[in-house]
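Late entry, evening session. Most of the bench is empty. Finally got around to the prediction I had been postponing all week. Sequence below, unchanged from the version circulated by S.P.
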Amino acid sequence: MTILLVEDDKTIAAGLEYSLQQDQFTTILCYDAESAKHVLANELHHIQLCLFDLSLPDGSGYELCQLVKEQSDIPVIFLTAMDEEVNVVMGLDMGADDYITKPFRVRELLSRIKSVLRRYQKQAPQAKPMIELGEIRIHTLEGKVYKRGTELLLTALEYRLLMIFANHIGHVLSRQQLLEQIWDVAGDFVNDNTLTVYIKRLREKLEDDPQQPRLIKTVRGLGYKVGE
């Protein structure tokens, strides 16, 4: 399994590369955005996961994540020294799958990597070809969502959250259950605010009246429910 690692601190990069290889991962190492873009243009089909430092000398992990997600739905984890919530939400909104703040323990990062990969592996084989939620059609094989025939543009994480609801029609899902299915439970950035942001954005895209949602309903004191 090949991981693209983009980290401009050569000491950190060397340590991470060694640890990943010791855990049986193959690594492609880049120190800047330009070389990473070259790899993405020519070798993306060989890569199963990306680790991007957010702050690079000639760009950022954000733009690299955007490049990846435009071409393929492979997982992206950000490495960063910044832990402000605005950066967390911005990264996740671009489709990132996880976010770990420096300094971190290598064992924790390896755990996050394996957790993200497990989620991707579980998601694909269980999917039905199409799921209908009222006027919403989810074409799972294509990873596309339509409302009255018009395609909705969802981020990877918005799509994953919608699929959780779609696979639990009629069930009340607590906020904790939703968080546990989206994130690695050990993630120290996990919080209700992040989930609230994604519920709100999903409703804005799916509902005719997001203020009076008919698809993703709030069950007071319990959580959320889709369908009867």
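Two things to note before I forget:
The chain has eight helices and 14 strands.
The longest strand covers residues 2-6.
Will write this up properly tomorrow.
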